[in-house]
Amino acid sequence: MLASEKIQLLQFDKLLEHTDITHFSTTRTGGFSKNHFAGFNLGYTVGDEPKNVTQNFNLLANILEIEKKQLVSPKQTHSKNIGIVTSSGDIFPDTDALITNIPGICLFIRTADCVPILLYDPVQKAVAAIHSGWRSTLQEISKHTIELMQREFGTNPANLIAGIGPSIGPDVYEVGPEVVEQFKNHFAFDNYITPVKNSDKGLLNLWEINHQILINSGIPDEQIEIAEMCTYSSPELFYSARRDGIISGRMATGIMLKK
Questions:
Q1: Shortest CA distance to 63 belongs to which of 99, 31, 37, 90?
Q2: Which of 8, 14, 191, 230 sits 20 to 30 Å CA-CA off 29?
Q3: Beta bridge partners of 82
Q4: 132: β partners
Q5: How far is it, in rounded angstroms, from Cα 60 to Cα 67?
Q6: In this structure, is residue 173 part of a structural domain?
């Protein structure tokens, strides 16, 4: 991923090759939030002063050279539900992924350890923003998003460009035996859980699981980019709910077809 020169926005090399889209993953640097939210918090529901969050969104819109009202996000609930965005005024409760083929609408999702995934179809001109925590990953939300893009926009998965953004890394994401069991029962591929010594817990590799889901959905491996940036291990750069608990801010990852 490359950092923008304006503030610490991150971008995927593979998506930067396409000039008809704008995309980003934010960090916590810069911004107007204070104290333990210090920086560029984009979450209204975590206890930060709403005016600070609004100023941060205004700054983001200014950097992206769009209006704040063009930014569209869902109310995330760790589901496999996907919204089809037809206007910037659309509202999406209980939704964890958005798709659109309308230029000028910037889809984004919020994270603080969960996996953000961006998809771009350069042939049919469609985009998606996906929030894939462990529950949504277990439900293969990215697979369902691709299937919906096929039905709605005629997307061929072989044409998709995908980015797996900053999120909690496989060296630190420890989960309990009940989660380990669910993943082992659902996924046939290997090498995504590392046993924790002297424990029934495991280290879960959400990067690789989502990588494999995208490949199994028909995206060529060479068209998938993994940021490999761990939110938990980089407190100066990222918020982390696992590290900071309820006082964690939120980052945003988004994509837009240019007008």
A1: 31
A2: 14
A3: 97
A4: 115
A5: 9
A6: no
DSSP 68-126: GGGEE-----S---EEE--STT---SS--EEEE--TT-EEEEEESSSEEEEEEETTTTE
What pLDDT, in 10s, does the model give residues 46-84? 999 999 999 999 999 999 999 999 999 999 999 999 999
Q: What mean pLDDT is predicted for residues 149-158?
A: 98
Distance CA(139)–CA(61), nearest Å, equals 32
**CA quadruple 207, 213, 217, 220: dihedral positive or negative?**
positive
- In this prediction, residue 6 has a pLDDT band, given cuts at 50, 70 and 90, of low
Whether 181 is covered by a domain: the verdict is no
CATH number (domain holding residue 123): 3.60.140.10
Task: List, for residues 177-224, the tens digit of each pLDDT value.
Answer: 999 999 999 998 878 999 999 999 999 999 999 999 999 999 999 999
Query: For the purposes of burial, counting CB atoms within 10 Å of the CB of 14, is it exposed (0-12), middle (13-18) or buried (19 or more)?
Result: middle
pLDDT digits (tens, 9 = 90+) for 119-137: 999 999 999 999 999 999 9
pLDDT score of 250: 98
Structural domain contains residue 187: no
**178 domain residue, yes or no:** no
Domain count, the chain: 1
Give the domain range for residue 160. Answer: 2-166+223-257
CA–CA separation, 25 and 100 (whole Å): 18
For 158, phi then psi, to 5°, come to -65, -15
